[in-house]
Amino acid sequence: MRRFQFSLQAALVMRERSVEAAEIALRVVQEEWNVNQRMQQDLVDEVKRAELALREGPVNPADFIAVDKFRTVSHRRRLRLAQEATNIAKRLAERRAAWQTAERDKTLLVRLKEKALSRWQLEYDKEQQQLAEEAYLSRWNVR
Question: How far apart are CA 17 and CA 20, in angstroms?
């Protein structure tokens, strides 16, 4: 009996590689998203720390002006980061869709391989059964 060979093995290997590439691309964009979110949170935290420092220390009118300017600059920076986050979110959705498509294609080929393997195993088992029967009959006829 011939050994099992999956005719679409090369395609399956290519699909597995495309899934790996899609996962890497997805991780890269996800990391961009995480960095963007951390930067936005850091800006919020810095403003809160500046406001708390202003409340705890001695009051100086110049400090109020500086904190107000810092709050304005921080707000503008957060708006820019939010715009970048929108673009990153779009790319993230695209990468996720590409990964899902690649994963679906790979899964389809894996299922086809499993079905082909089960058909081959069934044929192999039948052939082994026939060989065993023939061997038994040949020993029976010798007696």
Answer: 5
Cβ–Cβ < 8 Å for 110, 11: no
Instruction: Report d(CA 79, CA 7) in Å as an integer.
Output: 54
Residue 143 has pLDDT above 70, yes or no: no
In this prediction the pTM is 0.74
Q: How far is CA 2 from CA 16, 55, 120, in A?
A: 26, 83, 9
What Cα–Cα distance (Å) separates residue 9 from each residue in 5, 15, 31, 90, 92? 8, 10, 33, 34, 30
pLDDT bucket at 142, cuts 50 / 70 / 90: low
Residue 108: name the closest of 22, 2, 1, 16 by CA.
16
The alpha carbon dihedral of 50, 55, 56, 60 has a sign of positive
DSSP state of 8: T
Under a CB-based contact definition with an 8 Å cutoff, are residues 33 and 89 in contact?
yes
**Mean of pLDDT values over 41-56:** 91
